[in-house]
Amino acid sequence: MHKKLYRSRKDSKLFGVCGGIAEYFDTDPTIIRLLAIILLFVSFGWGILIYLAAAFIMPQDDGFIDV
C-alpha cells in the first residue's frame, strides 16, 4: 500500500494539516491537534511558521478514494 501525505478535506479545521497528518499515521486527529498546540507554546511561535509552511507545501487531498 502506498501512502501519501495530503491536507485533509474531510477532517479540516483550518487548513487540514493536522487532519492529513492524522490520516497518514492512522491516528486520532484530536491527538495531532493537541500536539500542534503544545508545539505552538513550546516553540515560541515557530509552530505557527511550521504549520503555515506545511499548509502551503502539502498538496490538498483530491477527494478520491484509492481502492
From TrEMBL:
Annotated GO CC locations = plasma membrane
Residue stretches in coiled coil: none
UniProt-listed InterPro entries: Phageshock_PspC_N, PspC
**Localization (cell):** Cell membrane
Keyword field: Cell membrane, Membrane, Transmembrane, Transmembrane helix
What membrane topology was assigned to this protein in its record?
Single-pass membrane protein
Q: What is its main location?
A: membrane
Q: Which residues cross the membrane?
A: 34-58
Q: Where is the Phage shock protein PspC N-terminal domain?
A: 3-60
The cross-references to PANTHER family, in alphabetical order and at most eight, read:
PHAGE SHOCK PROTEIN C
Question: What is this protein identified as?
Answer: PspC domain-containing protein
The scientific name of the source species is: Candidatus Avidehalobacter gallistercoris
